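Sharing a chain and its predicted structure for anyone who wants a worked example. Both blocks are below, sequence first, tokens second.
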Amino acid sequence: MTEPASPRVPLARPDVIVDFDVREGLLFVSLKNIGDASAYEVTTRFDPGFMGLDGRKDIAGMNVFRRVEFMPPGKEFVQFVDPLCLYVNRHEPMRLTATMTYRDRSGDEYREVISHDLRVYLDLGHLVAPLPSSTPEP
């Protein structure tokens, strides 16, 4: 008599994602390992690239997106981009694709491609803190 096949247990592996979030009217981008194993040599490419911090910082070109040597499970890097209204008013891209490449401890390579459409946040209501005025009040 043959024994029934045991259910296949998925192997623990890294799973690195890029996500965008808007909290209280502020846009953030994050790089996170949501997998069950560490990721190594993580690189992220954005298409198109985008600027933040009032158009003065190349967010897509930051070191955290160029290469992270090691990301344990649950590790997350979060970067403030801009108030959403300023990002939109500068005509920064609202549709972006993030491509992450990385490997696991055994050297197996992975590639993830995630498309984002930031226009979804334009339909949602947000509590927006007032921006500081460039001129002092009398």
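Comments welcome. The beta strands are 16-23, 26-33, 39-47, 51-52, 57-58, 68-71, 76-83, 95-103, 109-117.
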